[in-house]
Specification:
Alpha-Beta Plaits, Dabb family protein (chains A, B), Dabb (chains A, B), Dimeric_a/b-barrel (chains A, B), homodimer
């Protein structure tokens, strides 16, 4: 199994209740049902006010490297990422477990 | 429950086999047994070569906000974080689940 973690930071001046952001969160929430490769899925807003805290997190898992690539290439994932690219940046880490 | 995710980036010029890094990874691997608040613990090197990939990840969970603070304040966690501060930076996200 491969864990795929993503931490998102909203661009300066973008609020969590921005309609684009709300739509982006909805797009992520729908991914779990839309992408068959996903074996584990959590996505949520950060609740920490530490300066090093990012704003939103995706914690997911897929079977193997091929499944991860299929997830990344899935039209629903690509569409959600394109939405987020309008108002946020992110960093990732993938690891086997 | 609260999920506590941390993504670490090694400082420029620091390698994964640097003795300080190896010791830092060992310190994190020992945390799971050392801190009773931890209900879930994964830590591992990133395997993605995407430019947005960070180097190392911690994926943990604790019961609630008070348990998270006890974890952060635990001497074993503070010591491990101090080790990592010598050679890496990191970002976090915490969320309820």
């Amino acid at each position: 199994m491969i864990r795929h973690l993503v931490l998102f930071k909203l661009n300066e001046g973008v609020d969590r209740d921005d309609p684009r952001v709300l739509a982006g969160v909805e797009a992520f929430e729908r991914l779990d049902g839309a992408v068959p490769e996903l074996r584990f899925w959590e996505c949520a807003w950060n609740i920490s006010d530490r300066p090093i805290a990012y704003d939103f997190a995706v914690n997911s898992a897929v079977e193997d490297a091929e499944a991860l690539q299929r997830y990344l290439d899935h039209p629903a994932h690509r569409a959600a990422a394109a939405q987020w690219r309008e108002f946020a940046t992110w960093v990732i880490a993938d690891y086997p477990f």
